[in-house]
Amino acid sequence: MDPSTRLNELFAVDDGSLPELRIEGLDSRSIAAALDLIKGLATGPLKYAHEKGAAAPAGASHFVVGLKVGGSELPELGFAQFEDALIIDYRMGPV
Predict the structure, then answer these.
(1) N or C: which end of the chain has fewer CB within 10 A?
(2) Domain ranges, ordered by start, for the chain
């Protein structure tokens, strides 16, 4: 199957789920570097789910933000930081 067809299958229809990508086995330095990269690619402010925002406990500091990568804007992605992992989620469906 052609990669663009496969990507279309993953994103085209909103089935109500929030699929996630889990990057596990990270140390605190790697997580901090990843979050700095995400913030650098952000097209707007980070929207936190928890009232404490970035100061929320690990696992509760979920935020949503749009990114611009290589000149292309991506739909909003969700990010959650854990002690040894970074979780990325997205809402399926057309942009």
Answers:
(1) N
(2) 3-90
